[in-house]
Amino acid sequence: MRILVLGAGAREHAIILALREENTPHEIFAAPGNAGIAHDAVVVALDANDPAAVTNYANDENIDLVVIGPEAPLVAGVADALRERGIPVFGPGKAAAQLEGSKSFAKRVMDAAGVPTGRAVNARTLDEVAAALDEFGAPFVVKADGLAAGKGVIVTDDRAAALAHAGQYLADAPVLVEEHLAGPEVSLFFLCDGDHVLPLSPAQDYKRLRDGDEGPNTGGMGAYSPLPWLLEHFGGEDAFVDAVTREIAEPVIHQLDAEGTPFIGLLYAGLILTEQGVKVIEFNARFGDPETQVVLPRLVDPLSELLLAAASGHLEDFPKPAFAEATAVTVVLASQGYPEKPITGRVLTGLDAASTVEGVHIAHAATGRTDEGLVATGGRVLNVVALGTTFAESTERAYEALAKIGLEGGQYRTDIAARVIED
Ligand code: AMP
Ligand code: GLY
């Protein structure tokens, strides 16, 4: 197949690496890509957020499948334009992508579909915010109602900080004040073709910048998959995944279909396992980053066939995708100053040495080539991904590889997957 992947991060690199792992070779194109992706795909200078440019390119180059990585092209209507031209695309149209783009849209759909989520109030003024904070009590949760790359959310015991956070966004749009949900978090992905869904294997993301879940929220600093502790909570991964498929993913997808906005692409359910059951904290309309980097290397079935089946409405012909037992861990290397003000342009060293560690590969998030060599071009720079037979092994491999990588001021968490390392 000739496959075009839109996006420039480690998630897109992970998708491309999974496509390359298949027995059937593909011709893979990436726009705009990054220096690491350029090694594994043909990088094309194309504005991934421009519906006409992407559609013309895909048409002229006889692309068989377009895979949209990030949210921005979805919200810009790139999938709609491709579908209008009859080009198979994995990614929802603008209307269905509001499931991610608008938290109040997501709440409404969940309500209509009877899907469990935290109570929330849409507040337009600081007085309304204050009233909602007092209604729900601490810890306080305030969310900007739009795309904020994981940074629009505050969870705090400090009422004044919650109010100040709301104040930053209120001038532009209402904010959501939400009931705090307590429990372990799970990211679960579903391939969707508009009316059928197929679940992937769950992962856990580390959203906070520093060890021990301290510091600000980020796009995600690391992840692991599978989740061994689902055994004691749910009797195992299958029981958990089946329950979430039935009670959350299918009702939401059927609701969107009934509303005339079918969801074709990746439904990302951000879940909290509360004492009252599994509840949704958020939906995203795309693969998670960095969770994809640990989920796809464990996928046994060919990714391209699943994505094409979803894009063309044939998922019902496929069984639930199979996953290897291997443990996968990824640790993000971020630039100094991330997430507030990342310092970019610094040289990266040691990647070749890091890749020689057994079971390790590197997914590039924000890298470029200059006269000085490979440099960091953004906040999250790269992901070290390590596979093993136990979490102790894959974690040790990941950190051994990271120790070989040089980036002045680079920061990473040292406790990724620590909670699941067997004694
Ligand atoms: P979101 O962008 O909605 O995924 O929120 C980012 C992070 O904030 C989540 O991964 C959670 O760790 C936390 N969070 C969001 N909403 C809640 C909530 N209602 N209760 C507890 N934690 C939350
Ligand atoms: N890892 C969180 C996200 O992709 O939104």
From TrEMBL:
Gene Ontology molecular function terms on file: ATP binding; metal ion binding; phosphoribosylamine-glycine ligase activity
Cofactor: Mn(2+); Mg(2+)
InterPro entries: ATP-grasp, ATP_grasp_subdomain_1, PreATP-grasp_dom_sf, PRibGlycinamid_synth_ATP-grasp, PRibGlycinamide_synth, PRibGlycinamide_synth_C-dom, PRibGlycinamide_synth_C_sf, PRibGlycinamide_synth_CS
EC number: 6.3.4.13
Reactions catalysed according to its record: 5-phospho-beta-D-ribosylamine + glycine + ATP = N(1)-(5-phospho-beta-D-ribosyl)glycinamide + ADP + phosphate + H(+)
Family stated for the protein in its record: Belongs to the GARS family.
Protein name: Phosphoribosylamine--glycine ligase
Natural source organism: Microbacterium protaetiae
